[in-house]
Amino acid sequence: MIREVYDKKRTDQAARASRAGTGPLERTNAARLPLIGLLAIQILIGYEWLISGVTKIVRGGFPAGLAEELAKKSAAAPGWYVSFLDSVVIPNAGAFGYIIEIAEILAGIGLIGAALVWLIAWPRMIRRAQLATLSVTVVAALAGVFMNVNFHLANGSPHPWFIPKEGFDEGVDLDSLMPLIELAIASVAGGILWRIVRSSNRPRREDDKQVMYHAL
Fold this sequence. Notes:
This protein has helices at 2-20, 24-59, 62-73, 79-89, 93-121, 127-154, 174-200, 208-215. The protein is an all-alpha fold. The protein has one domain. The longest helix is centred in the N-terminal third of the chain and has 36 residues, at 24-59.
């Protein structure tokens, strides 16, 4: 009798929570919304890198014209960076041009692919596949940060915390904005990666994968 009363009480509580939109499923879906938003942004960032790299290859002339482009645009760059360009990059501009093309495409594919895998297959993935997906995300995002910072310096763009010299200039250029987003992506993926690695050192529980799924 007591058991029946207890079961009926739990059933009534679950029904009320479901009607109020506060049941386990609703809470899980609500908790995943910020991650889905971040993954959508990750796909957009990856698309920017992919299109940038593909455009350089399809239109052609990027490696051959990189030295001249850097010589023109780097006039407003910091002195130490101009010295680096003059002594290292410009003399080897052709090789750097091909490296940039490949790096942009790989960063784009890595960010887009990892985000799609995360969205579609994460709950069904084994731990090793999850670690690989997170690692690709972190590496691709940090590679994007590295390229954005160098492009920003090479172009001599004004720093985002200063007012531009002319009204036609951007307040915050793309190469200043993207690193902040990429750092956020790398931080989230790196945090989850660390959490999975740490949990792997403990005895494996049957619901580990579900715990990680709900945490995401």
